[in-house]
Amino acid sequence: xxxxxxxxxxxxxxxxxxxxxxxxxxxxxxxxxxxxxxxxxxxxxxxxxxxxxxxxxxxxxxxxxxxxxxxxxxxxxx
Length: 78
Prior knowledge:
The protein is 53% helix and 0% strand. It is mostly helical. The protein is built from four helices and no strands. InterPro entries: Cro/C1-type_HTH (IPR001387), Lambda_DNA-bd_dom_sf (IPR010982). It holds the Pfam family HTH_31. This is Helix-turn-helix transcriptional regulator. Residues 17-71 form the HTH cro/C1-type domain.
């Protein structure tokens, strides 16, 4: 069973990305090359910038092997 990290803000997502990148021994430069993105973008993402493009974020998550899932709220049954 895999435990996930609840992502409720950009800062939490950035911390998860930084932690995963470092665990994999990747520099920002290496990850940027793998994703085709700039080091500046990755730095801003890791620092919780709230206006990052979702498409680019998904590229980073894919490169790191992070699966993004969403769970709808449970609805009360009468």
